[in-house]
Amino acid sequence: MKLSPKIKKALNDQVTLEASATNNYLAMASWCEVTGYQGAADYFYAQSDEERTHMLKIVRYLNSLGTIATIPATKSSPSSYKSLEVLINTALKNEQSVTKAIHNMVEIAQKEKDHSTYVFLEWFVNEQVQEETKFETILQKFDLLGRDKLGINEIDKFLATEATAPADPVA
């Protein structure tokens, strides 16, 4: 099967987005660790690994179709955040951007009647629902538990348990 130039570009652009997400989450983990949020650090180290897995999934898909994936250089990630809540909000916005890009690829695959790529992308569509829901749930915790030191400590503990939760078997 030969990929159209349009879908090939979209998939390679997604490799770049996933690589950026990997680096962003790694930078977030680093900030959390230095700031004393060990649970959040563990959570974002795991998120970074997960995004790298997503990137590799796309690279391998491209390679399986005889297309060499373009491995990008990425921009530097922010290294400091005003608060844990701001960091989580940033993560949610990043996931929303990824969702938009995946939906765009699905539309391209549909228009071009590229059924194989469409089926391949279904997993990513479902994954993004989970990703956005995860961060929305974490943000709700700030309203439920508070933004004082005790509330943030509880959120950090929650993130520690999420970091050690079994990975999604589909990943």
Descriptive report:
This protein has 171 residues and is mainly α. It has one domain (5-164): Ferritin (Up-down Bundle). The protein is 78% helix and 0% strand. The protein contains 5 helices and no strands. Helix 1 (5-35) runs antiparallel to helix 2 (38-64) and helix 1 runs antiparallel to helix 3 (84-111). The chain starts with a helix and ends in a 7-residue tail after the last helix. The mean pLDDT is 95.
Describe this protein with a few key phrases:
Ferritin; 171 residues; 0% strand; 5 helices; elongated; mainly alpha
What kind of oligomer do you see? single chain
Overall residue-averaged pLDDT value? 95
Assess the beta-strand content as a share of residues. under 5%
Helicity, in percent? over 70%
CATH class: Mainly Alpha
| CATH domain fold name | Ferritin
**Number of helix segments?**
5
CATH superfamily: Ferritin, core subunit, four-helix bundle
| Cα-to-Cα separation, first versus last residue | 25 Å
Low-confidence stretches: none
Counting helices, strands and paired strands, the structural category is mainly alpha
Instruction: Tell me about the largest β-sheet.
Output: none
The coarse silhouette is elongated
CATH architecture: Up-down Bundle
Query: What is the count of distinct domains?
Result: 1
Order of helices and strands: HHHHH
Q: Radius of gyration, rounded?
A: 17 Å
Number of strands: 0
